[in-house]
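hey can u run this one w/ flavin mononucleotide bound, need the structure tokens asap thx
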Amino acid sequence: MPGNLLIGFGTETGNSELLAMDAQRIAAERGIESDCACMDEIDVNRIKLQDYVLIICSTWGDGEQPDNAQDLYDSMQEVGETDLNGSHFAVLALGDTAFDLFCEAGIQWDQLLEQKGSTRLHERLDCDTDYEDDAEEWLNVVLDKIALMANE
Ligand SMILES: Cc1cc2nc3c(=O)[nH]c(=O)nc-3n(C[C@H](O)[C@H](O)[C@H](O)COP(=O)(O)O)c2cc1C
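ok here u go:
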């Protein structure tokens, strides 16, 4: 497949990681090869090389990034405003509406990737605690889009 897909997750208790693994399986079903990695294993230069980036990230504390997403998020803020030109992204945010800053970390990723020049290929999904079905449906739609674009 032309293009490459990176699925990056940020998590504290594993929900985002499980969804990232689902995403990789759904991608494979569409013939899309991907890498799936925790954000603390991803270098900012890697993001710059990707054609497609899928971010799956929960929110912790009081609207904060998970510990394993914070460094990459901070590094990404330092890259140039056109450094991600030509790439595409989508964000799946996990959270809980019981908190004031619902899905704030995912919202921050969504804004940051756009600000750095990447193109949003699908609207962000903000998930409450009962998220499995919505997340699965969203992943299917997003990966259908990537499969179509990558084969153009
Ligand atoms: C201590 C704590 C703080 C949290 N803070 C927020 C928050 O500020 N905003 C939000 O939307 N969700 C918040 N959540 C909910 C988590 O984001 C949610 O449970 C998510 O599914 C966890 O995914 P993970 O296992 O990938 O980390 C919090 C949960 C806990 C236990």
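The chain has one domain: 5-150. anyway lmk if its weird
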